[in-house]
Amino acid sequence: MPQCKEEPTEFDGYASRYNDLRTCSTGSGRNAITYYDEYKVRHISRDLRVRARASPVRILDYGCGIGNSAPHLSRHFPGALIVGVDVSSTSIEHARAQCRCLDRVSFAHLGDRAFAGGELFDLALISNVLHHAAPSTHSGIISLVKSRLAPGGHLYIFEHNPLNPLTRLAVHRCPFNANAILLLARQACSLFVGSGFEEVVIQYTLFAPACLRFLGFIERYLHGLPFGAQYCARATAPRPA
Ligand SMILES: C[S@@+](CC[C@H](N)C(=O)[O-])C[C@H]1O[C@@H](n2cnc3c(N)ncnc32)[C@H](O)[C@@H]1O
Questions:
Q1: Is 88 a pocket residue for ligand 1 (Cβ < 6 Å)?
Q2: Does residue 9 have its Cβ closer than 6 Å to ligand 1?
Q3: What is the spatial order of strands in the sheet that 149-160 belongs to?
Q4: CATH 3.30.310.50 fits 10-236, yes or no
Q5: Digit-coded pLDDT (tens) for 57-85
C-alpha cells in the first residue's frame, strides 16, 4: 500500500539539498549532474528509436524525487504528458517548483487520488529508486507500475551497478544512500520476469564519466559489459494474446 501523504519519508529530509549532495558525493559539478540525468532519458529515446517503437504519449516517472528527469523527458519527448509520483511529499513540492514552467508535466504523491485512476501510460521510468525501497517491496512496486502501463508499454529501470567499484564508492559517500541496498542487474531482470513482463533486456551504461562525455558514442558497443557505473533494465508489458 502507498504511504499516506502525512507520513514523513526518508527523502523529505534530503529534498532541499538533494542535488548538492549528489555533486559532493560524485566530486562533480552541477553540469555533470545534469548530464547524468539527461543520459538516462537519451538512452530511452535512442533505445525506442533503434527498436522502431513509437514515441510515448503518456510517461510515468515513478519515484521522481525533486523532478530532475522531467525537463529532459519533456525535451526528448515533446508533446508527451509526463506524470511524476513519489512517496516523499517534500520532494514533490520541490519537483513542482523546479518544473513550474514546463507544460504537460505534473507531480503527485503516490497516495493521491490523482494517481490512483486515469489513463494508462505507454512508458514508465523507475530511476534510482529500487535500492531505496526494502527488497521485500520490489515486486509490489513493479506490479503497481505494470498495472498502470498500457499493453505493449515499456518500463525502464535504472540502477547503480554494484559490480563497479567507483559506483560503490560514490554511493557510500552520499548521505542519502546510508540505507541503500544495491541490486544486481540479474535481480532486476528476475523482478521483470516474475511480474510477467516480456522482452526483458539489460544494458550496462555510463562507462565514461561526464568529463569524458565526448567518448559517449562508444558506449553503445559496450552495453553487454557489466562494468558501467549504472545499468538499464527494460521490459515490455504483455499485449493480450
Ligand atoms: C535517489 S532518489 C531518485 C529520484 C529520481 N528518480 C532521480 O533519478 O533523480 C529516490 C527516490 O525514490 C523515492 N522512493 C523510495 N521508495 C519509494 C517507493 N516505494 N515508491 C515511490 N518512490 C519511492 C524517494 O522518495 C526518492 O525521491
A1: yes
A2: yes
A3: 105-109, 81-86, 58-62, 121-127, 149-160, 230-236, 198-205
A4: no
A5: 999 999 999 999 999 999 999 999 999 99
